[in-house]
Amino acid sequence: MRAIVTGGAGFIGSHVVDALLARGDEVLVLDDLSNGKRENVPDSARLEVADVREPLSGPFEGAEACFHLAAQVDVRVSVERPADDAATNVLGTIQVLEAARAHGTRVVFASTGGAIYGECDCPAPEDAERRPVAPYGVSKLAGEEYLAAYNRLYGTGHVSLRYGNVYGPRQDPHGEAGVVAIFLGRLAAGETPRIFGDGSQTRDYVYAGDVARASLAASGQDGGVFNVGTGIETSVIELYELCRRVAGSDLQAEHAEARLGELQRSVLDRSRAERELGWRPEVGLEDGLRLTWETIAGPGS
Ligand code: NAD
User: Fold this and answer.
1) Which of the four pLDDT bands, split at 50, 70 and 90, describes residue 40?
2) Do 31 and 148 belong to one domain?
3) 95 C-alpha vs ligand 1 centroid, how far in Å?
4) Would you say 2 and 25 are in contact if contact means Cβ atoms under 8 Å apart?
5) Do 197 and 145 belong to one domain?
6) Residues 147, 213: contact at Cβ < 8 Å?
7) 70 lines ligand 1 (CB under 6 A)
8) What residue numbers bound the domain in which 63 lies?
9) CA 73 to ligand 1 centroid distance, Å
10) pTM
11) CA end-to-end distance (rounded Å), the chain
12) Cα–Cα 20 to 30 A to 58, which of 12, 47, 130, 251?
């Protein structure tokens, strides 16, 4: 199969590229390298430096699937510059859908659970109320709605995946959910990490390799929205303890004032993905942190 990965030079996109190459696909990465890195793209994939905000039709010729991960990913940037966020996340998604329409390409869209559901009191199923608290969540939700509208209008089978807090090798500490990269990076450098608020806030941490498998499984679906999370909540304090354990560090974190608008609880119900995609996470948090730590501090460390 010929597949396109937009944002394939970024953190999660590069794991999707790896998974596609491993199953023998021909992979074209479209990335403007605004946040991604050329060295994240393996030699066996092709990289075309392209901006998804511009018309994209040419590269889609002959592509059966497009994994659309290119995005403005920083929640704080979306608050400061919502129009820039929407330009990439909404207009960019429309450009991808238009190119896909011209060439009969199936789109799998990287959306977000936490930023769309907002505050959770239990693992949020896909039909939970949508309460984005930042423009980033709104722009991702708009992207999903465009996919759904194209499916109704053109009979296409595009799929949206709402990821939990993804972590793993090659994560950039500045992204939507960079806390693991920040903690492990600081521990490796012997610098004191900071915990905002009392550290009781919870997230659903899912390993990037597991997210890549879910993305490939979703490309065989005929439309729909699927949560891609573990269903397990981990507090920031618990996460930091696990990071210290894998890093073999006794460094104490310092506490800082809670950040405005930060969610207290965020966790996804993964039963639909399990039922319909046959997907379940395989890498537990401690194992995933260890795999990530090894890429930061070197194997066997
Ligand atoms: P990332 O920044 O590493 O990857 C995004 C990539 O998109 C980068 O390589 C960047 O250079 C590229 N890009 C940005 N603007 C572009 C443009 N205009 N044209 C072409 N390429 C452009 O971030 P990530 O964490 O790997 O996120 C990947 C996707 O997953 C995003 O769509 C993000 O919204 C979504 N997501 C991430 C998380 C998470 O926990 N990291 C959670 C939910 C959803």
Assistant:
1) very high
2) yes
3) 16
4) yes
5) no
6) no
7) yes
8) 2-166+205-231+268-282
9) 5
10) 0.97
11) 38
12) 12
